[in-house]
Every structure is written in C-alpha cells, then in structure tokens.
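User: I'm writing a short report section on ligand binding and want a predicted complex to refer to. Could you take this sequence and cytidine-5'-monophosphate and write out the structure as tokens? A short remark afterwards would be nice.
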Amino acid sequence: SKKITIAIDGFSSTGKSTLAKQLANHLGYVYVDTGAMYRAVTYFAMQNGYITSDYFDKETLINSLPFIKLHFEFNPKVGFGEIFLNGENVENQIRTMEVSGNVSRVAEVSEVRSKLVEQQQEMGKEKGIVMDGRDIGTVVFPDAELKIFMNASLETRAQRRFDELRSKGQEVSFEEVLKNVQERDYIDTHREDSPLVKAKDAIEIDNSNLDREQQFQKVLQLVDTTS
Ligand code: C5P
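Assistant: Sure. The structure tokens for the complex follow:
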C-alpha cells in the first residue's frame, strides 16, 4: 500500500500523541509531535526571560527566531523522536505546567507559526508521516489523505493530563490542570492565525468512552481504506 500523510488534530490531552505514536510504530511511519515544537520555542522564551505568566516581549522573541534550531532524534528506548533545542534534548523540560501555562500565548504569534509550519512541511514531504497538533489538517497538510479530529470530555482530558504529570512526579492539583486545559482550548480556538478547527474532511473521534485499543483499531481501518 502507498505511503500517506496522516494528520491528527484536536483539543489538548485528547490522546492525540498516544494514537499517533501507535500508528507510526505500526505502519513504520515517522511521528512528529508539533506541540513539542511550540513547547520548545516557549521554553526558549522562558529561559531568556522573554515570557512569564504576566509579561511577554513578543518582538524580542520574533527577532530571536533565527537562533532557535529544533530537531527530533529517534530514541529506541522510548520508541519516538525526542525534541532537541539548539542541540540539547529538552523532552522533559517542555512538559512542565509552567511551559503549558505559557505555550498557547507563544503559539498565537504568526512569525512563530510560519517558522514551525515550514519545518513541519519539510519533514512531511516524503509522506509516510503521522503528525499531531492543532492545525495539521487545515494548514500544514491540507491535502493529507487521512485527517482525524480527536475529542473527549473536558473531565476525561484533565484527568489524563493530571495522571500523566503525577506519574512524572510533578506536584500539581487537579483544579490547576483542569484550568490550564480549559485556558489552552480557549486560546487555541479563538486565535486569529490558524485557530483549532476541525477540517471539513476530517473524521471526528470522541474517545471519552473508547479505550486505546478500540480507538487504534478504528483508525487502522480508516488507514486501510485510504492507503
Ligand atoms: O499538543 P500539545 O498540547 O503539547 O501542544 C501545546 C500547545 O501548542 C497547544 O495548546 C497549542 O497552543 C500549541 N500548538 C499549536 N499548533 C500545533 C500544535 C500545538 O498551536 N500544531
């Protein structure tokens, strides 16, 4: 069967990356987590003092964009590509609540988006790719052969993110995580440039009541009918 492009979009913590990794491993495709790229730019901005919870020097971040180099390196121990910022593996640093609290404001900046979208399109030009994010089916790969839009109830999503952070030993409260998921959804759907919307030709999957395996089988069937 021919190699295709699979675009997975949806709200925060809908399990996009879990599904995308499963698919990529099964199909022998490359997986790209575009959220990690926005998080890495945010981490860079935080390290340099360009953004805090109540301050954002957009101009300086925009001027620094040429000095931000991102790449992924496949780690066989974890089975996916980990993100590197200017040569440093920042896979763990970008998953904190602090980065989550700032990332959606960074992702609103058009200059940030166009830089990352260009790199994403370059990574996907040979097809055989599964990419997850917010604008993959609408902006990055509008011609993707298969587009999935994932959703789940707010409580389900907040619970998942909470469990994930706790399992990594982070001290967070459920309320804090719920608030962050809600805030990111709001900013991501209301921003001017590339807001989160379901592409017209995307297939919506609500996995509030599906387990991982059921969801995977459902999407594999879709892949079989497309490729
Ligand atoms: O996927 P993840 O939740 O890690 O993404 C973090 C944030 O990055 C999102 O809340 C969103 O603001 C931004 N993002 C985006 N476009 C993408 C991927 C992520 O704006 N394609």
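A remark for your report: The chain is about 50% helix and 20% strand. Residues 174-190 form the longest helix (17 residues).
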